[in-house]
Amino acid sequence: MIFWTELINKVKRLSLNFPDEREIEYREFYYVRSYKTTRFAYLILSLLYAFFGYLDSVVAQQYFDLFITIRIVIVALLLSVFAYSYSRNFRYHWQTLILITYFLGAVGIILMLVRMPEVVVYSSGLILVFLAGSVLIKLRFLAFSIASWLVIILYIIAGFIFQVDYNIVLSNSFFFIGAIIIGMIAAYRTEVFNRSIFDLYLQIAKKNAQIEQANRNLEEKVEVRTKLLNDRNRELNDEVKHRAIVEKELIAAKERAEESDKLKSAFLANMSHEIRTPMNGILGFAHLLHEAESEEEFTEFVNTIIKSGEHLLNLINDIIDLSKIEAGILKIEESKFELNRLTEEIYDMFSVNKHIVERNIQFSYKDGLPDDNCLILTDRVRLKQILINVVNNACKYTDHGSIEFCYKIEEDNLIFVVKDTGIGIPEDAQKHIFDRFMQATNGKTSGRESTGLGLSITKTYLHLMGGNISVKSEVNVGSEFTFVLPHIFETQKT
Ligand code: ADP
């Protein structure tokens, strides 16, 4: 038992097979590298096998028919293998087919050799067959060795059967064995060499796979890094943009601060001028009181002092309002009240206005809500101030015609319109009249008490209350101021 196992192991080692799955791959590898050479070898060998038939006609005329038949059969076999080598299935049977044809090719020559033992041509032919079997047709080492030794045995048996001179059989056998041994060494070396090449090939493939993997890893890393860099780049770009915006804002803030500084200086200069004028009036006429020559003159001086005092008071009120706005302490205090009562108060206040009465200006108003249902929610004090400012302007800048004011409700919004047929405002001045100390200088404002603060305060109040104001005006035709206050019916305000 042990003997057989050892023998099998030895034969296995002789087969040179890889002990693992590499063997399957190697066979494929060997086929791919060899099948073209094998195909070429079969073509050449079949030609040689056929052409040597010529020698038969020279040296073995008495057996020519037999020999030529053998040659035709073998050549047909060789050509069949050549043709089959183009088939896809060749890879599965090629070693078996090579082994059989090699063996039969040799048997054919042996048949000729035992018939014509004294002719050296046929023993040389058999040596040629050994040569082709060991290197040319790509038969593997073990198959070549077994087949070749079988051929020798067959030759010796055939020698006996055909009663060939044993000296010739012996001397030929020596040559044949020599050729087989040389062929075996060549086949062995070739197969070992091929297998080591295959091993190297496997190692290279493995290394290649490792390199590819490393490459892939590297690419992944590069990709991750690139992504990180791109993200960082984007962040930096955003940061740069953000800084540019901040810088712009800072510059704008600086410009605003400088502008506001200039405005404050101008405001102070204006104020001192505006305050000095009525103050001069008050003091000047107060001094003149002593020198009044008549009762009438005295009353006139007192009236001028009162008028200047009122103007001063108005101015101071405006200044106080403005400083409150500037300091941010002006608060909007909402309460529910009847809007029609407020419009009534405004009407009563201005219907006795001296300017209106003296110039016989038609003064009227119209409510947008019924008297018994005109409750709204907003800052009454500020709304009254706004109305006074706008209606007062209409009175100030209207010398004839009419003044009317009204309100309407549209989707919870309160819309006030104050319309007059006064001097009007030039188009280019219209956008500036809401700025501080801006007066529309069309020459006709002279003689009218004017500070250029009223509309600016009005606009700020409206903004604080969430509304806005606009004007439509035409010089010498009249003006129409419209202001909107939103959500005046809301019961709760945030
Ligand atoms: P003030 O009336 O004290 O000058 P305002 O800020 O109230 O200041 O008005 C700014 C300017 O707008 C006025 O100087 C005047 O030129 C112009 N203005 C305002 N209301 C009218 C109006 N109803 N008709 C013509 N001009 C007006």
What would you note in describing this structure?
The protein contains 14 helices and seven strands. By secondary structure, the protein is α+β, with helices and mostly antiparallel strands. The chain has two domains: 215 residues, no CATH class; 155 residues, 2-Layer Sandwich (Heat Shock Protein 90). The site of adenosine-5'-diphosphate (ADP) has 21 residues, from helix 12 and helix 14.
| Rg over alpha carbons | 63 Å
Which descriptor suits the 3D outline? Answer: rod-shaped
Sketch the topology as an H/E string, one letter per element: HHHHHHHHHEHHEEHEEHHEE
N-to-C CA distance: 105 Å
Q: Give the amount of beta strand, in percent.
A: 5-15%
Find the count of extended strands (DSSP E, 2+ residues): 7
> Largest sheet, if any?
5 strands, mixed
* Main β-sheet, spatial strand arrangement: 2-4-5-7-6
Helical residues, percent:
55-70%
* Low confidence ranges: none
- Overall pLDDT metric: 90
| Structural classification | alpha+beta
What compounds are bound to the protein? adenosine-5'-diphosphate
Q: So how many helices?
A: 14
Q: Tell me the domain tally.
A: 2
